Give the backbone structure.
Amino acid sequence: MPADRFEPDAYLREETYTQTRAPVEYASTLIPEAYRSPVFFEAERQRVFSTGWVAVGHVSDIPVSGAVRTVTVAGQSVIVVRDRAGELRAFHNVCRHRASRLVTEQSCQLKRFRCPYHSWAYALDGTLLGAPLFEGSDIPDDQRAIFDTSRLPAFDKRNYGLLPVHVAAWANLVFVSLEPEPMPLTAWLGDLPERLAGYRLDEMTVVADRSYDIAANWKLIAENFMEYYHLPWVHPELVKVSRVEDHYRFQGPGLYTGMSTSPISRDTESGWTALTEAPHLADSDAVSGRFIWILPNLALSVLPNHVFTVLATPMAHDRTVERTTIALPPHTADDPSIAPALDELAAFWDHVNGEDIAIVERVQEGISSEAYTGGRMCFRFEEPLHRFQNMLIDRMVGLERIPAGDGDDPMFASPAADATGSQTAARSRSSAASRSSMSSMPVE
Ligand code: FES
Ligand SMILES: [Fe+2]
């Protein structure tokens, strides 16, 4: 493994990232240590994944009271549960007595949490219900002397509930924040809920669920998702339905990157396009694909007839577990006759995702080269990378900042895209330089 060129504290300082802070036309990509250094990975856990909002799954993972899911956030095990009142709750997965892990199953149904070590019990809302023998009342008469706690300071169960974690839902997704006082999830998402409101994501049903273990840093997966520069070479099939020249940026204020394919082309040879569009879509949504990466770890590919989701969980600087799902709107989710089309759709995404995994694993190998110090971004196609890397740098150096939207630069505006969401100040760029480069790009 190549040596870090920086001492650990440097990862928390602005001057380390000068090459990426420049306007996109001049910027170089993030320092390679960000992808290959265990020291950077640890700092990133603290600064990026332990603050703000991290996607952990679907609302349907925790459908009813007592449904429990364990997830990993910043290397920490977290319990997400629906309590008796039907509210989502999240807790650190540790007993308040002597720290046994409380839940080991990834998914289960419980009436209460009971620690296997000394049997402390907690309600689904985290309240400590009982600590056997602790107060004396449960102790058999002939053993009272041994368990006499009368000389101990008073013990108040109210002080020993499970340690809470913030949890919130948007669309059909669940997010948690380890931060004691995070900004509201709505502020994190910015105008995205408004942009995607027409798709009614909260009504969608997850119909396919698959995981992958990837030998690459999570940011390589993110960055690969948010640029369409690689499509002709890595995804010859995908470009039949999602042509490079039909891509536009789709970014308002919020901690996300976005692009839109409009119109989404139709490849009549692909059986999965037989799934019908959701009937309620507005004109623009009905002919567009929206490809959104929400900082730090969630991708949404929103198509008129389904949504493909990628949830990335970093395990190490060079390893990421990825969960992918397909969700359908109610009119097709409830229709058994769509099974063959759904199989084709799942196979299609598995194929495309496999192409992406192969290329990002190859980048992980390349980025360990000591000679590489960062590369140039193709600003016509890779501006979302620049936005993403700058959002990440903001978190690393402790800046709470939400990027503005793209503005009205005609180069990036889609003729068929909705102008929903507030479009704020345009980012600085040389339009003339951008256009001349665009016209020389080999996109056909
Ligand atoms: S560690 Fe949980 S009851 Fe003792
Ligand atoms: Fe790709």
The longest strand covers residues 205-214.
